[in-house]
Amino acid sequence: MPFTPRTPRVVAARRLQRRRERDATGRFLVEGPQAVREALTRPRTVVELFGTPDALDRYADLAATAAAADVPVSEVTDEALAALAETVAPQGLVAVCDHLDVPLAAALGRAPRLVAVLAGIRDPGNAGTVLRTADAAGAAAVIFAGDTVDPYNGKCVRSSAGSLFHVDVVRERDPAAVLTAARAAGLTVLAATGYGAADLDELADTGRLATPTAWLFGSEAHGLPDELVEAADAGVRVPLHGRAESLNLAAAAAVCLYASARAQR
To answer: Which CDD domains match (predicted)?
Structure first.
């Protein structure tokens, strides 16, 4: 019989919706066929796959891939799936995955040419969107620094649209340590800020974006702390040619990351 909301394994998995449980177990939930597909591309990441009978039939290739990797595939009722999912209209699949954390030294030791550093970003949707953008621009690592949201928050995972499984995910409590390590790894540290002394277009025109770069992004509400902007090699503003007061975080991050990606290519 399919598992119900009261089945112990469903109950245990549902607890992963809380950060305390995620931190204690080193596991998190991934929802929907696209995210599950990306998770299965990383060996030894998926711990268990839950699916309704209809979803397991519709996405039989994913169930077969999981089974071939010795991942338990468990049928659940619609009610159990709804309890595991955090969206209004779930797509029938939820996977339990192990954390993907990569140590800071290991990520920077791979000589990345483009890195995104999220410093104090509390909104999980924004964090996940920036992670997805960084992946699209070719960044090798995304560093969650300081009081930034948990990268395994359900909304952050969904907003990343699978990109969480494509890049090195680093968590580091001390943003200053990130800057020090980035410079030691040969990266230029640029802080994205609306009040930056350097203009993004000027940096691009003079070739300064062609070097390996770590971009710092702060929260949409408060931006980067002054001490991080001052500690960076340059504070960089995106030029506004129209009458808009500013860009939102996701848009600004996309402009900055793609400017570096273009220059490096």
So the answer is: SpoU-like_rRNA-MTase (cd18095)
